[in-house]
Predict the structure.
Amino acid sequence: MSTERYHLYTGTVPVRWTDMDLYGMVNHSRIFTIMEEARWQWFNSLANKPKTDCVFPLVNANVNFRKKIEFPSEIIVKIFVDKPEKKSWIFYHELSTTIDQDTVYVDGMITSVAYNIKEKKAVEIPQEFLDIIYPKNQ
């Protein structure tokens, strides 16, 4: 990760009993869904959503489980980005809880690419979207 990391969004996601496993903690597979839900919260919070022929699929994911998240709790998800590459960028996630905000329970990152639906290939990130995911670029 470069030193160009930029805080993009902080949101909360409730822990639902369906997120739990037999060991009384949030199931590891559910962490990806929680991170995705926070990214959707961020995207839906945008006043001016970009109009583009691109979609931004996830192409890589990595998660580090530091401490188990138990029920009941509410998860705080902080999202950061690095300076984007030409066609891709990385969303970094730090998950804590409203009960213990100073402890990072989970950290993870996902890589997304700009994929043009009409051209059926990865393309350069459209400037209108680049300005949203990395405002420091302006």
Observations:
- The chain has two helices and eight strands.
- The domain at 6-137 is CATH 3.10.129.10 (Thiol Ester Dehydrase; Chain A).
- Residues 115 and 122 are 4 Å apart (CA to CA).
- The beta strands are 6-14, 54-55, 58-65, 74-81, 88-97, 106-113, 115-116, 121-122.
